Amino acid sequence: MKKTLFVLLGLFVLACAPQTQQPLTDILQDSPNISGKEDYLESPFVTAGDRVYMVGHQDGSFPPLGWHIKGEMGGIWNHPIKLMDGFEAQLITEQGVLPLENASTFTNYPYANKHTYTFKNEGLLIERLQFVPDGKQGIFVQFILKNNGEDNFEGEFNFVGHSNLRPTWLGERSNMIDSKDSGSFEESHWVVKDSINPWYTVFGSYQNPFTSETLSNSLKPNGASHSLTYAMTIPAKSETTLNFSIAGSYHSKEEAISTFLDILTDHHDMAAEKKLRYEQLAQQSKLTIPDKQLQETFEWLKYNCDWLVRTVPEIGTGIGAGIADYPWWFGVDSEYALKGYMAVGQDDIVEQTIQLLDSVSIAVNGNGRILHEMSTNGVVFNEGNINETPQVASLIWEIYKWNGDKTFLAKYFPTIQKGLKWLLEANDADNNLFPDGFGMMEIHGLDSEMIDVASYTQRAFSDAALIALELDQPELAKEYREVADELKEKINTEFWSETFGSYADFIGTDAQALRLIEDALVRADTLNKPWAVEELKATRQEILKNPSNKARPFVLYHNWVENTPMEMGIADSTKAITALDNAKKFTNPFGMFVTGIDRDETAGEDEGSFQGSKVFSYTGAVMTLPTGVQAVAENNYGRPDEALDYLKRMSRSFSYALPGSIYEVSPDYGMMTQAWNIYAFAVPIVNQFFGIKPMAHQKTIIIEPQMPSGWENASLENVKIGNNLISVWHSTSENGHQIKITQTQPDWKIEVVLPGDSYTVQEGNPQTETKNGKTVFTFTEPSMIIGKN
After folding, report:
1. What is the maximal distance between C-alpha atoms in the chain?
2. Minimal CA–CA distance to 597: which of 498, 518, 504, 530?
3. Of 95, 122, 679, 726, which has the fewest beta carbons less than 10 angstroms from its beta carbon?
């Protein structure tokens, strides 16, 4: 009798609940989606908003994840605090318990995801869907329970929330001290509070459970676990839904409950709004090419970009570096990634990120030095590596070319000026214009004069000269230009190694090189790379045989940064081609090795999972950033087919482990999604293949395409430059090649630069001239079509 009463109560509550029981599948049904692989169900996924994100496994479980805070990087985060380690759900029948912990499939959508649980013997199929509404400190979770059997299903649905209100990384430095959580049940939901902090998590449903219990949490002494149990009847051949909201606040109970109720009440509209916003992201810089794998990769990278937006109102908004272990803010990651963000039209977050990094760098450093890593509680872990300061100068100039906002340029130029001064006055002991200190390679001892620091410093002075001119400071521009010119010459002479046909890893003393060789020998021997051992021993013998009392260039590790002179376009063309060809030796099917001596003779054929060490390490890694840098470098020297090859290598990692994403380390190691991936794809495609060179400050756009072979029909639509939208179509038929260009602001000047001559204007009235063997078409109309037989 008691069980029957519970069932009737459950049916009454379901019937009387507000009209929020619509399944999310109604919204998701026509959205892009990718199903995961069975082999990777026990690997991470993420569903993200700008305030909250959730990380668990694709099978629906929430095991301990991550190393930054060991075992704590999964679960539900509302930075700078964690809300939950996760949750569990199960159906309870008279025959036993059906746990929802081993999903048979995982499906990822741009803004949501779905786990499917199948119980064939019981005739049940259960879908768990979730998404994070924009701007909300909470997440919506929906269970759709489908009874495919001939009999009514009667039982109970049990939901357990594992709260763990604790601070993020470095919380102890900001006086965020974790303490015991405790919960109280209120009406239909649990309210859990940290005992000494105003940190709350609230979870529950509109339905009133017939039981609610506090459970023991033996794994997390400061955590708390609470259950909600609902009576449930599902008629034969029908389905029902059960909605949950999980919300939090690090300020007040009232805020957490308000968010909880808002999500329960308005989740359908919130999902529809997020869907629309993601559809708009897809339409910006919309790529259509014959290679559908690469096309899909490019589309989803735009979604990935949005997953990484982190907002902490008390500090600011900016892109995180990667999920799950690097969700906070980085200087260098942003300096690469934001160039790609601009190319796909996500400009608001670009300016917000720059504002955040600049303001905190001023507060912490005050001398133009750009921070490296900052937790979401505002604690700066690393005040800045040497390369980050010059790279911000080039980033600011690049963004200005896209937005044309002189106020933006003037706002950040003082930081650039201070940074360049600090770079050479505080970090160049021998006054040779090569700053000393760590660059991108985090290898112990590699902190002398690094090739990437030199390359980015050269480009910084070159770009700062252009900024100074734009801001009417011609004398300063001249000074910066002279430094840039001298650095370019010195990099091409002093860093070049004729022996290895590449630029050196670093310039240093013999003693430093010999120490590094010993470390590198241990690494190469441990990884069983006999060719590297032999080469390193030969280099050591050559140093001992021909000693020098002056610093000189050394090629020891074959690090990817040796290719930054080509990425920056400052390498002599002859040296560049030699170096680019040699760099191909240090690849596998997924891209470039971070450290070249880690490759071996099987690397060119190995397409399997990355076997990382037990302690998180990048040893042996192939990564998207080095590979993307290589693609940019190849395009800089007129080799689009080689650049495309690197993009194809990277796209082999797309959906390899997490559907819809590319891992940081190829194909399935490290961060499951990474911000700088968009640099690796968007710059080669938008700026180089389609040749779109923005000059928004002059209301001018130069289009000089260099399309790879096989892209006879390709288009890039709705590229946002200032207040203009540019679209470019390339098409090839038996009648020849045609390029069509449209813009939404016909008072802007478009210059189309094409190789050779013999073109026919099919639409528009452009001015035409020949320059350096190329034909230049200039127009200020809504559209133009040019053909060539």
Report:
1. 95
2. 530
3. 95
CA dist 767 and 477 (Å) reads: 32
640: left (phi over 0), alpha (psi -120 to 50) or beta: alpha
What is the chain's alpha carbon radius of gyration, rounded to the nearest angstrom?
Answer: 28
155 residue type, one letter: G
Ordered alpha helix ranges (H), 443-572: 451-470, 474-494, 510-526, 530-545, 564-567
pLDDT of res. 4 = 36
* Separation of alpha carbons 505 and 313, rounded Å: 41
Strand-pairing partners, residue 91, are 98, 157
Asked whether the beta carbons of 234 and 242 are under 8 A apart, the reply is no
Q: At what angle do helices 530-545 and 510-526 cross, to 10 degrees?
A: 160
State whether the Cα torsion 183-185-186-191 is positive or negative. Answer: positive
- Span 359-407, pLDDT tens digits: 999 999 999 999 999 999 999 999 999 999 999 999 999 999 999 999 9
Instruction: Tell how strand 700-703 and strand 113-119 pair up.
Output: unpaired
CA dihedral 309, 315, 316, 320 (to 10 degrees): -30
Q: What does each C-alpha distance from 247 to 49, 138, 139, 627, 711 come to in angstroms? A: 13, 4, 6, 40, 47
Helix spans in 619-675 (H): 624-636, 640-651
48, 323 contact by CB (below 8 A): yes
Collapsing DSSP to helix, strand or coil, 114 comes out as strand
- Which residue shows structure tokens 């079509």? 785
3-class secondary structure, 558 = coil
| Full DSSP string of 524-542 | HHHTT-HHHHHHHHHHHHH
| 172 DSSP 8-state letter | G
Q: Are strands 736-743 and 783-788 parallel, antiparallel or unpaired?
A: antiparallel
Contact indicator for 716, 767 with CB cutoff of 8 Å = no
Report pLDDT digits (tens) over 416-451.
999 999 999 999 999 999 999 999 998 888 889 999
Question: How far is it, in rounded angstroms, from Cα 35 to Cα 25?
Answer: 15
